[in-house]
Specification:
45% helix, single chain, globular, alpha/beta, Glycosyltransferase family 2 protein, Nucleotide-diphossugar_trans, 332 residues, Glyco_trans_2-like, 10-stranded mixed sheet
Length: 332
């Protein structure tokens, strides 16, 4: 079982004599070889010199292909490679990424996501224009496994700049993806790494940063976040673990909020993610027709939020389950 830190892992500052580029693009991967070439090419196509940008793949002991050979083939010496001695899990792999990052700005770009041309120059411009910002991010597009666009994320505001009231906004629900955001390494040094849960750990991190720093933003779509057709079929989703993790992330987020806002934000978060869980439950039912899987979702949905409307919608889902059972009995 992967290790989950109980508190933010410490990120030590780099030695004073360390040669540092502006950028560290750190690419955590685990069994995503079918998408990794697109990810690497999207970074290489930015044509940023090695003196300005570190690019490194951090492999969490993948078993699908020889990732090192793939990196060498595509990178031709431009992309560094590090392999964990065993599968350590996502949080430790992210920690390794940050520790190995030498740049001023750290971009954790997952091995199935992509950046569009201009991402790094635009984000760097935001940091230069807003030196007080601890992080900067862009609007993103959501794509499927074939690279087709599902949707464009709703903009947070219509112009570049520091986001107003961002702590309150990001605390209510997750609004960005790893691919879209870059963090100053010194921020990780001050606040530590990812911890606590393996679904929603980034949400807590973005809230933690917002508590201590302004955050810069551009509405330009310069990153692409990929969803997989099997992304909701993993063990955590089948057992409702994603909702359990989100509930824990909400508790962790509470410590970053002013006293007068905690109760209201928690209630809105629970309601939002209860309906999110309902959407996942319907998707799982349509895909698997497994009653136990759906009931696992419902257990956590009701833990998060209860209202007459939600109970009515859940009743409709139960009716769908029972009608299917009757149909199966009739046509055996």
């Amino acid at each position: 079982m992967a290790y989950i830190p109980k508190s933010p892992p410490r990120i030590a500052p780099l030695p004073a004599n360390c040669v540092r580029p502006t950028w560290s693009v750190m690419i955590p991967v685990y069994n995503c070889a079918q998408f990794l070439p697109e990810t690497l090419e999207s970074v290489l196509q930015q044509n940023i010199p090695e003196a300005e940008m570190q690019i490194e793949v951090i492999d969490d002991f993948s078993t699908d292909v020889d990732v090192e050979a793939l990196v060498k083939q595509i990178g031709k010496g431009r992309i560094a490679y590090f392999r964990q001695p065993k599968n350590v899990g996502s949080l430790v792999n992210f920690e390794t990424c940050i520790i190995r990052a030498k740049g001023k700005y750290v971009h954790l770009l997952h091995g199935d996501d992509k950046v569009r041309n201009g991402y790094y120059r635009k984000i760097e411009t935001l940091f230069v224009q807003h030196p007080e910002a601890g992080a900067a991010f862009c609007r993103y597009a959501c794509i499927d496994e074939n690279g087709r666009k599902n949707y464009d994320k709703t903009p947070e505001m219509q112009h570049d700049g520091i986001l107003p009231n961002w702590l309150k906004t990001i605390s209510e629900r997750q609004r960005l993806q790893y691919a879209s955001i870059t963090v100053r390494r010194e921020v990780y040094e001050k606040l530590g790494g990812f911890f606590g849960v393996t679904y929603g750990e980034d949400w807590e991190m973005w809230v933690r940063i917002a508590r201590h720093y302004p955050v810069a933003y551009t509405p330009e779509i310069l990153a692409e976040y990929r969803t997989h057709s099997n992304s909701i079929s993993g063990n955590k989703f089948l057992k409702g673990g994603h909702l359990k993790d989100l509930a824990q992330a909400m508790k962790l987020i509470q410590q970053h909020l002013p006293e007068g806002q905690k109760t209201g934000i928690l209630a809105r978060s629970k309601k939002y993610y209860a309906y999110y869980g309902l959407k996942i439950a319907n998707r799982l039912w349509n895909r698997l027709h497994n009653e136990q899987v759906v009931k696992a979702q419902i257990k956590y949905i009701l833990y998060l939020h209860q209202s007459p409307l939600l109970r009515l919608v859940l009743l409709k889902l139960y009716l769908k389950l029972n009608l299917y059972k009757l149909w199966k009995r009739a046509y055996r």
